[in-house]
């Protein structure tokens, strides 16, 4: 889920602001122009003709689908350093408007002349800034074309064109209720959700600070997560002292709820099986009050290395990032039946994050979704082996497709009778009971809950009396924080990505421990 994992289908967001004062409250970013000029020393908005060319150029690279849109756009900005900070925001907003509405824009742009990407750029800018801002720089033919297409009624367009979705996605969602409402919500720009670090600060404290310093962002507490704050727009936060000292992190409210489903306790062994950028890992560690041991597994050393500064800011000392080759790595096998809690935030289509990553609906396909489903099944089966008797396994995606969600759980339970399905709404009842969910799963909809689209299922490994005694004894061992570092050398310097787990070397485990794994 996304949404946080570069290299998977979930692309990272290019829409974050930065530039808040280091020792003060966050505010809108003001950057110096190239050459040292302040924005006030030049026109507030560059000529619209230049802006159209900027958006056209960026779209020309993104629409080649060579990679996630945010990564391609970031590269485009690096290649065009004269595009200032304020201009970058306008370019990004227009580019993402085009990606959200690509099918509709392409159809209504067919009657125009000139380069197709220029017409798309004009439509995106007209949508964001208004037609009156764009018309003065167009020639006569372009101006006539723009006035004509602006008068086209959405009601005259086919449903898939009006909602701007590919046919395969429309067919896949036909089984869901009120899909038009869901897709319309996913076609809107997302607000900015942040999460407080419960080890460092209370939500009410940060909320009061934001309401005093950033009233234009309309800060408010998230309705379900007890740790979240929602802001409108893209306020600058990354140089605010609350960000720099690890008191806050950017994280969608739906993603925050996954940690509550895992429900880690002090002193337990917990595994974040697909840790990615580590946002959920950090919250899990905080809920554990930095006790026990928390393994953050991922196949990418680079991603775990990027997680390191976030971990350092968080103040956690119980997290061990571990690089694995794949879901069947020998390091994973050494954790068999040892973990009290395992979170599998599986690589997925990312269809629940379309408001943040609209390019995914054009970059994914039935074939790519099928490949992802096969990977999800393999990851879930491998992660399940790590769960101790009586332990909890949480499977989650940021997808709204049943083949990645309910279907995967039904298949898993049919093949693994040693697991039973728990009620996610019951688990969340004490802290997020207002969700109004009726089934056993956590199913978050953007049009209903205001979050990204999320799915989660909570599974538990059945246990008998002997297994219960074994699990209790293991819990007592892990509660001894002083002994953890001695038992696990990797915990002596937490935070560094490692390529080994306890038991990988002869001095770490004896024959009995090896066979138990």
From TrEMBL:
Pfam families, A to Z: Methyltr_RsmB-F (PF01189), RsmF-B_ferredox (PF22458)
Swiss-Prot/TrEMBL keywords: Methyltransferase, RNA-binding, S-adenosyl-L-methionine, Transferase
Residue segments, region Disordered: 1-47, 479-517
One GO term of the biological process aspect: RNA methylation
Gene3D superfamilies: Vaccinia Virus protein VP39 (3.40.50.150)
Domain of life assignment: Bacteria
Binding site for S-adenosyl-L-methionine: 298, 345
Keyword Metal-binding: no
UniProt cross-references to PROSITE patterns, sorted A to Z: SAM_MT_RSMB_NOP
Basic and acidic residues composition bias: residue spans: 12-25
Active site positions: 398
Protein name: Ribosomal RNA small subunit methyltransferase B
